[in-house]
User: What shape does this take?
Amino acid sequence: MIDLLQGYMNHNKWSLYMILYPALDLKNGNCVRLLQGKINKETIFNKDPLIQAKSFVNQGCQWLHIVDLDGAISQSLVNQKIIKKMIKDIPIPIQLGGGIRNLKTIENWISIGVERVILGTIALRDPQLVKEACKNYPNKVAIGIDAKNSNVMIEGWVKKSNISVFDLAKSFEDVGVSAIIYTDITKDGMMLGPDINGTKKLLECVSIPIIASGGVSSICDLRKLKKECPKLNGIVCGRALYDKKIKVNEAIRVLN
Assistant: This one.
């Protein structure tokens, strides 16, 4: 088991394994899913995110993908207590995003056990901070690129930028970013299938490991991503797991 986990934690090399990242999006202390990133279109799936996280661990997941929605949108600290408890109690690596916009916050999360922090809005606004964070914390910094019609969305998906997904990704090619989490927000939560074309194009643009997110609705979607995008580091999956459209053990078997 230790050897397996070490293999998963080697972020910067392509692996035979494609990782399933169960998504835990936190809002007001609840585990929720949004439709197309719209904060007023939420479904609460569990009022105890720690129980949900432990369930994913017990089903064999090797990573967790946690997003603090309140932190991303309003810089609220409402979810920090439960996030810290998950970091303490969960025995597998956690990647965390949402409202992480300065070196002090990055240092704080890494010091208490987050394996990888995800920088979103700040990656666009302050690329120098990303470079500094990668230098200070090797293999600990990922970029979250959320897209709508190939343009980068920021501040919890509520504002559209003028830069393309591909240009932003390429700007971080040589700075030490451990992964890019790419989300097509028009697909997210819609259960209509992932953005395979956009994901393939991003894989062709950069050598940084890519994690695909948004739209996965079935085992067939996972098989298609595995076939069409074999160099993916992994896939973030949310609503399909909560709705039991995808069984965790079957997903892991398909991806591996």
Summary: The radius of gyration is 16 Å. Residues 49-58 form the longest helix (10 residues). The chain has a mean pLDDT of 88. Residues 165 and 197 are 13 Å apart (CA to CA).
